[in-house]
Amino acid sequence: MKRLDQRGAINSWLIAFIVTLLITLIALGFGLWAFSGRQEYKNKVDEKVAIAVADAETANSLKKEAEFAEKDKNPLRTYTGPATYGSLSVSYPKTWSAYVDETAKSNLPLSGSLNPSFVPGLQSNLPVALRFTVSSSNYSNIVKTFDSQVKAGKIKVTPYKSDKVPNVIGVRLDGEISRDKQGSMIIVPLRDKTLQVWTESPQFVPDFNTIILPNLVFVP
Is 220 among the domain residues? Predict the structure, then answer.
């Protein structure tokens, strides 16, 4: 009977030990799984935080660069053309370079190109921040040259008048103002001639709207 009791006790102890060991192993496994999951979650959170911080720093840097670029445009420079062609006055950022031809050798007695840093040559076909011309061509004839683009929906036409010369009514074009070039242009009659002022890139439309047009002056 004692041997049976001893065996029973041993079996009970062994079972208890095995059960305790299994519980311990399960608890340990669960703990490792939970720790691993938490660590993985923490790593993902840390990675997301690092990305968010980097994005915020980049956005802040770009914002500061944009603010600096805007401040660097002032004070504005001003070009004033000959009285013969309406004393055209164009104000532009001081960071832009300008090339103006007043030689009156062709149908364009006055033409100018302005661009940040340098003015690309006409043959380069690069978009330019601002161009202006005083043409000997009739106002109505110049406006009609854009009829096909307007009918095709490539250009939107709206009435235009200068803030500083409100008694002269012209038109504003927005869209594909020339082949493969998107931008904005104003066309107004100027005495017996026609004034055109335009930008050849959407990048410079904000400057066109907030700097060029509000400061545009000419004598009708």
Answer: no
